[in-house]
């Protein structure tokens, strides 16, 4: 198993975790949908942005 396959698997698991957290958040329906789409279509970038600014996160 190559390093890129392991990295891809880690990103996949992190994305699934993020989507579950988004769906369980108190955000409104459209906000949840937009965050899930961002994480789904931009797996790594969407995950990073969600981590810092996702629903339920406090601004800096």
**Portion in helices:** over 70%
Q: Describe the main β-sheet briefly.
A: none
Number of strands: 0
Tell me the radius of gyration: 12 Å
Q: How many domains?
A: 1
Mean pLDDT, nearest integer?
88
Oligomer: single chain
Strand content: under 5%
Which structural class fits the helix and strand makeup? mainly alpha
- Secondary-structure element string: HHH
* Uncertain runs: none
> What gap, in angstroms, lies between the N and C termini?
39 Å
Helical run tally: 3
Indicate the overall shape. elongated
3D structure, described in words:
By secondary structure, this protein is an all-alpha fold. It has one domain. It contains 3 helices and no strands. It has helices at residues 3-24, 29-41, 43-53. Helix 1 (3-24) runs antiparallel to helix 2 (29-41) and helix 1 packs across helix 3. The chain is elongated and about 40 Å long.
Layout: helices, strands, pairs:
Layout: H1 3-24, H2 29-41, H3 43-53
Helix pairs in contact: 1-2, 1-3, 2-3
Give a short summary of the structure.
The protein is mainly α. It has helices at residues 3-24, 29-41, 43-53. The protein is elongated.
Task: Quickly list its features.
60 residues, mainly alpha, 0% strand, elongated
